[in-house]
Amino acid sequence: MNDPVLRELADALGPDVVIPGEEADVRYWNDWAGLPPVRPKAVLRPRTVEEVSLALSVCNRRLQPVVPQGGRTGLAGAGRPSEGAIVLSLERMNRVLEVDTANAALVAEAGVVLEAAQQAAAEAGMFLPLDLGARGSCQIGGVLATNAGGNRVIRFGMARDNCLGLEAVLADGTVVGGLNRLVKNNAGFDLRQLFVGSEGTLGVITRAVLKVQPEPSTTAAAFCGLRDFEAMVALLERARARLGGILSAFEAMWPEYYDLMIDHVQRLRAPLSGRHAMYVLLEARGYHPESDEARFERLLADLVAEGMVEDAALARSERDVRDFWAVRDAVAEFPILLGRHVNFDLGLPVRTMQPFVDALRRRLPAAFPGIRAVYFGHIGDGNLHVVTGVPEGVDTHAVEDLVYRTVGEFGGTISAEHGIGTIKKPWFHLVRSAADIATMRRLKRTLDPNGILNPGKVVD
User: What is the Cα–Cα distance from 94 to 21, expressed in whole angstroms?
Assistant: First the structure.
């Protein structure tokens, strides 16, 4: 290692922790954002918080930029290396340390894959409600650093709502926070919230305490075809009123999404025989077998009788539930089905979603002939996903500009659950005030005065 920074890191951490850039696997060169890959100067793979602290201390003193990486499943570019940066991968810090059933808490290192944490909770008879389509790849640290949402936000909230405590390392190597397990803890500032959603720009999350629940004993699910968007809103309101706390998911799909998946993904089983103006995957998970499923079926029967729901398929087995979710989770097929494409992760008030979709249905093809857009999302929590298949020769930046400016017109946000990263920075001012952004910059300068942590991401 000819580079003095890498030599010092290897001397301090051991050569098995430091991988020179020319030897680094290409998986460290990028995340899922689709930007051109960048080979990092090196990859650090620490095994303990002490090694993370030591690595950052050296890098801070040497003014060496560092890009923290989790499972690299983000879509905003926050996990992509910048030129000359060292990647700090948390993948070796992958232990579930404890499932504390008395305090309903799971303690895990940042590199634990979400699905592994879910399995550990299940083995202890508990349920980790955080759930994303990328569950088999994303890591706990990255889920918290991006404040990920996912499929059950309508009931359990975002990642920050499921975090009781966390430990993080600042740019200079200082370890802060702790493994708090108390729901009620008002002893001073809540430092964990500085790091949740900060995308690795303020510190590196190393361990966390997550809320778990008793494992639900009932699951009811239905795939519904509806006459229009207004019927979908009415279904959402009725489901909330009649199912209450057991409503666990409300996933909506417009025909552009549903038809694309059912017509072109052979492994999918069509839940319904006909086609409709809107589709909803409705799920309820509860603890009372004697009443939960009956409540769910009565709600569905009433809505069908009223004509609000035109058709519905009720899950009769775990396989049916998996097959319903397979339609909604088929997003990994976009590169094959749409080719060159842009993902949009938007937040909008529910009643403005259809006017927003209608606006994009007019504006996108008028501005970019040949473009294709699909619409779907976790509508119960105001999260709409738009994915556009972009023809060759069309400037993707121009597509982003049109969509994000339309979001601004409708009072929404350009990021519901994937963060800002680098991709969305040019439009950050559309949804956050100048005072907000200035305050974020002050926090960044205070906690990372040398600007080594994930430079160029979120705020400068």
Answer: 23
Q: What does the mean pLDDT of the chain come to?
A: 95
Q: For position 149, which CATH number holds?
A: 3.30.465.10
DSSP three-state, residue 355: helix
For residue range 363-402, list pLDDT tens digits in order.
999 999 999 999 999 888 899 999 999 999 999 999 999 9
CATH number of the domain residue 297 falls in: 3.30.70.2190
- Residues 202, 258 within the same domain: no
Give the residue numbers spanning the domain of 81. 4-89
Burial of 437 (0-12, 13-18, 19+ CB in 10 A): middle
Sequential DSSP letters for 41-82: SEEE--SSHHHHHHHHHHHHHTT--EEEESS---SSSTTSPP
Residues 254 and 157 in one domain: no
Q: Are residues 203 and 222 in the same domain?
A: no
Q: Is the dihedral of CA 257, 263, 268, 269 positive or negative?
A: positive
Cβ–Cβ < 8 Å for 88, 44? yes
Classify residue 127: in a domain, yes or no.
yes
For residue 322, how many other CB atoms are within 10 A of its CB?
A: 13
- How many structural domains compose the chain? 4
Residue 293 burial (10 A CB sphere; 0-12, 13-18, 19+): middle
Alpha carbons 219 and 448: distance in angstroms, whole number: 46
Q: Among 165, 140, 169, 144, which residue's Cα sits nearest to residue 52?
A: 169
Of 13-17, 78-82, 147-151, 442-446, the range with the lowest mean pLDDT is 147-151
